[in-house]
């Protein structure tokens, strides 16, 4: 019995592979290294003390995927593989639709033909857009996202719901809020590619002197300190939620399951609060300047994650400061590799 983890060398995938191995699952990773590096595989082994099987190829290549399903008894999939840069998705829409949806369909074809169930999909709070009420629960109406990236997530959800209904399979759609942090060992984390767009890698690189100043995108939002508010969820907590969601599918006696869970802390933090928490946690300074709002940004989003607590017996455990300490450790590990 093995679980296929696509994108298993990526940021959230690598942490989830460790948790799966810790929970006794055999893991088969497919990752084309388009946004990850081979040393992560070695680090996963070091951290977990066990070795996942690894295939380096592009999931768009259906014939190679078929060989993986022929070689292993796959009992479920956690599908992390996707392109995830919101800005890039606007200028390369067809590449994003191709990479995020063709890969999904290739895996589902294998599932369909072989009668496999248990599929977990990395969705995002972006499917809610700017919700009218906080906190956001799973019944909050969806809004078609503005970005192509966000649309691929919403379309992916629809494809999976149709798949589950038509073939009586079990699926779980996990809507992450803002994943942050790194493994406490300092050996796994988010690999920054070029200039970071996301807040935490930018903060870390600024503290490390790689970037001169953080630009805070807007201090005129209708929030307590004027900066935008998000729900920052620690990546190891998030990884554990995947194991819970998988077990929930595996243990369900229902033939068809369509699970949807918001994964967040339930608490909103402003950009300025994050910067201060990072400074306090790590005793470093983060120079910043206030700039105009970033196009497409929403004011506020934080989760009501009660459903995950009730049905998956999962909740976020790690404080913002604690997770920001792990990011700094990871930055220092990356710096030590660079010399
Ligand atoms: P990541 O880029 O670190 O990981 C994705 C991995 O998939 C990478 O290792 C990449 O090499 C691999 N990959 C991409 N396309 C592939 C293909 N065609 N074939 C094989 N491998 C391929 O991203 P992440 O932050 O770990 O995100 C994982 C998933 O969670 C993605 O689906 C993302 O959209 C979703 N998500 C991420 C966030 C976030 O803020 N990080 C938030 C919500 C949802
Ligand atoms: C957080 C806050 C910025 C950088 C994106 C995607 C979303 C999801 C997570 C995948 C915002 C502010 C940021 C900076 C700043 N990904 N900021 N200066 O925009 O909430 O969500 O990543 O599904 O789909 O849209 O995350 O980390 O980019 O920004 O002031 O240099 O930090 O304006 O308020 P976001 P983020």
From TrEMBL:
Pathway: Carbohydrate metabolism; galactose metabolism. GO terms for biological process: galactose metabolic process. Coiled coil: none annotated. Pfam families: GDP_Man_Dehyd. It comes from the Bacteria. Its EC number is 5.1.3.2. It is an enzyme of class 5 (isomerase). One of its GO terms (cellular component) is cytosol. Residues 4-325 form the NAD(P)-binding domain. Belongs to the NAD(P)-dependent epimerase/dehydratase family. Homodimer. This is UDP-glucose 4-epimerase. It comes from Chryseobacterium oranimense.
């Amino acid at each position: 019995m093995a679980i296929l983890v696509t994108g298993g060398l990526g940021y959230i995938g690598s942490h989830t592979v460790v948790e799966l191995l810790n929970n006794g699952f055999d893991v088969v990773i497919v990752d084309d290294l388009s946004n990850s590096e081979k040393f992560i595989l070695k680090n996963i082994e070091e951290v977990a003390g066990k070795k996942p099987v690894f295939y380096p190829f592009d999931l768009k290549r259906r014939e190679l995927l078929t060989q993986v399903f022929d070689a292993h008894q796959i009992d479920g999939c956690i599908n992390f593989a996707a392109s995830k840069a919101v800005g890039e998705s606007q200028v390369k829409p067809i590449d994003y639709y191709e990479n995020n949806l063709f890969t999904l369909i290739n895996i589902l074809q294998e599932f369909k033909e072989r009668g496999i169930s248990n599929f977990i999909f990395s969705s995002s709070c972006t499917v809610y857009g700017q919700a009218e009420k906080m906190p956001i629960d799973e019944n909050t109406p969806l809004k078609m996202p503005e970005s192509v990236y966000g649309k691929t997530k919403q379309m992916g959800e629809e494809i999976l719901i149709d798949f589950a209904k038509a073939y009586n399979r079990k699926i779980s759609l996990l809507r992450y809020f803002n994943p942050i942090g790194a493994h406490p060992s300092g050996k796994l984390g988010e690999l920054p590619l070029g200039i970071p767009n996301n807040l935490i890698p930018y903060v870390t690189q600024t503290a490390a002197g790689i970037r001169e100043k953080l630009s805070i995108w807007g201090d005129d939002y209708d929030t307590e300190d004027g900066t935008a508010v998000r729900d920052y969820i620690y990546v190891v907590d998030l990884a554990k939620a995947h194991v819970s969601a998988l077990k929930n599918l595996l243990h369900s006696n229902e033939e068809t399951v369509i699970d949807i869970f918001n994964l967040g802390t339930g608490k909103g933090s402003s950009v300025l609060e994050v910067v201060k928490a990072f400074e306090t946690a790590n005793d470093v300074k983060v120079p910043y300047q206030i700039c105009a709002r970033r196009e497409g940004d929403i004011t506020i989003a934080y989760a009501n994650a009660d459903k995950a607590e009730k049905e998956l017996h999962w909740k976020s455990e790690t404080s913002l400061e604690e997770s920001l300490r792990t990011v700094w450790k990871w930055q220092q590990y990356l710096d030590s590799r660079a010399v």
